[in-house]
Amino acid sequence: MSLAEQDEALIRAANEGSARAWDQLVRRHETQVYNFSLRLTGNPTDALDLMQEVFLGVYRNLHRFRGESQFSTWLFRIAHNKAIDMARRRPVSTSLESALEEAGDQIEARWQQLDEVPEQDPQVLLDERQRNALILSQMGALPLEQRLVVELKVFQSLTFEEIAELQDISANTAKTRFYTALRRLKALMEQDHGM
Amino acid sequence: MACERTATLVADHFDEALSLLQREALERHALECPDCAHALAQAHQTHAHLLGWQQQAVPAWARPRLPAAQEKQPRLRWHWWQWAPLTLSCVLALAVVLNVQVSTDSQGVAIRFGAAPTLDTAQLEARLAAFEAQQQVALQTLTQTLMQQQATDNARLMEAVIDSVVEQFGDSTTRSLEQVVAYFESLREQDLQLLQASYQQLADSDYATIRSVEQLASLVQGGQP
Questions:
Q1: Considering only CB atoms, which chain B residues are within 8 Å of A186?
Q2: Is the distance from CB of A185 to CB of B50 less than 8 angstroms?
Q3: Rounded to whole angstroms, how far apart are CA atoms A52 and A58?
Q4: Which of A64, A92, A99, B153 could cross-link to A133 by cystine, CB 3.0-4.6 Å?
Q5: Alpha-carbon gap, residue B114 to A129, rounded angstroms
Q6: What is the value of ipTM here, to two decimals?
Q7: Which residues on B lie below 8 Å from A59 (Cβ)?
Q8: Helix/strand/coil percent split, chain B, to 5
Q9: Does the pTM exceed 0.95?
Q10: Chain B neighbours among A 80-139 (CB < 8 Å)?
């Protein structure tokens, strides 16, 4: 059974009232949604709030899911809309320092979670921390519409046609936003690390 | 950026939806256009930098749960008797609303709905006549019963009297009968004497009253001019 078929089976069971199926469905996708939320909001607290809203939205609309697209596509459509709603309510303000600080908190939490894997290299974790913090900081410097295009294109691998449809813009506008965002990110990368 | 195609070219380069022919044309242009080649190289670096993102583990969070009301509840088992009070209430309410009347007579049980039917004069008279006939029959029966009872009582009284007389005058039948007759005769004479004395007393009283009235009348007449 493919992942998509497993998703559909879990959705059917959840729609019939199975709390266990719903819980499994959430656990299967929460990491993707959390990282999506973290990159868009720039901090773990807002990311958790956004993730909460996304899954509540998914639950409320689960009975409308017809399986015409993959569940993950449908899920990220909801996540995209919720992210826009949240960004309108809370402007993103992610400086490199605050991103590093929050990423540090994340690493601390990760350390605690990785007690069962003591062989994890601290240097790897430190690099991971710095890289993610940089990306958060740089993406946080982008306007929301550019940040969303980068997220959807780079991390969710959507086509420009799909992004255009999702954002109700033309494909050319989506491409322009993407290119502009990449240039801006490149400038920030050079500024941060002389890359 | 001197080339007008750079933005589209860079974006298309990362678009998986691009056809093979389009991709070949794009790469040919990048080979010929230094601006686009430079932009593409920088975009690749940026893209690779972004893909260096390490998935973050999800911190502990309150996963939304199915509302309790949505979770499957055990099906309640219904028994017919659970509906009995409700059914009875409904039947009684219906009986009140429809003004159901239940009556019994010699022909059995009668159930009527709505107000009782009104009687016309002829029906009323017929009912009264039937009632009167019933009363007559009941009265005759009662009278006969009373007469029988009285006859029985008289016979018992006579027996008691005869017994007392026999006890008083002996058991010779002929002589006793004569004595009984004489006894009743003496009682009758006593009653007559008492009756005469009462009449005489009443007459004397009336006479005294008349005389008093006459005296009063004469006094009244004498006092007048």
A1: 42-43, 45-46
A2: yes
A3: 10
A4: A99
A5: 89
A6: 0.83
A7: 64, 66
A8: 70, 5, 25
A9: no
A10: 106, 109-110, 113, 128, 131-132, 135
Residue B54 has which token pair?
Answer: 């390490």
Interchain proximity A27–B17, CB inside 8 Å: no
> Which token pair is A195?
């890359």
Q: Which long-range contacts (CB under 8 A, 24 or more apart) does A102-111 make?
A: A102/A43, A102/A44, A102/A133, A102/A136, A103/A129, A103/A130, A103/A132, A103/A133, A103/A136, A104/A129, A105/A44, A106/A44, A106/A132, A106/B56, A106/B59, A109/B57, A109/B59, A110/B56, A110/B57
Residues 21-50 of B with CB under 8 A from A: 39, 42-43, 45-47, 49-50
| Structural contact between residues A82 and A53, judged by C-beta atoms closer than 8 angstroms | yes
> What distance in Å separates the CA atoms of residue A142 and residue B157, rounded to the nearest whole number?
136
The tokens describing A29, both together, are 């996708």
Per-residue pLDDT of chain B (225 residues; tens, 9 = 90+): 578 889 999 999 998 888 899 999 999 999 999 999 999 999 999 999 999 999 988 998 888 887 654 545 555 567 778 888 899 999 999 988 888 878 777 778 888 777 766 667 888 888 888 999 999 999 999 989 999 998 888 888 888 877 876 777 666 566 667 777 888 888 888 989 999 888 888 888 888 888 888 888 777 776 554
Q: What is the dihedral of CA B99, B102, B103, B107, to 10 degrees?
A: 120
CB A149 within 8 A of CB A174: yes
Please report residues of A whose CB lies closer than 8 A to that of B42. 182-183, 186
Spell out the residues 6+ positions from residue A193 whose beta carbon is closer than 8 angstroms to its own: A134
Chain B residue with Cα closest to A62: B66
